[in-house]
Design brief:
It is a single chain. This protein is mostly helical. It is 72% helix and 0% strand. The protein contains five helices and no strands. It starts with a helix and ends in a 5-residue tail after the last helix.
Amino acid sequence: MTTMPEARQEQSRGSNGTIPGPSLFAGIVLLVSGPLSILVGVTGIARDHLFSVAGYAYSFSLTSWGWIHLVVGVILVVAGVGVLGGRSWGRLMGVTMAAISLGTQFMYLPHYPAWAISVMVLDVLILWALTRFNA
């Protein structure tokens, strides 16, 4: 008979102990999206004048955006490690943080549209892969 933590572990992994394809995909994309957000965050913190937008509704300073992206990126990496480790908390954290990242990228869109749209696509793919029924 399996205990509760072992039962949760079995839900995250296949019968042979491997991670199902969508979860593997999501974990890898989380480990790509996280460092990309970290890089944007460091750039925003180090060079506040690099990106500029006048008259924008979400008018945080770029240093603030930098810190937001840095924190979101670090948590995305932690979620990716959790998903690849087959942890149930990793899946929940991955879905939550991909949704938060999607929102922050949408608000960041006027500052750097090509980057924001690219990361938004990654976030949608993460959400799709982690919320599949058989993932």
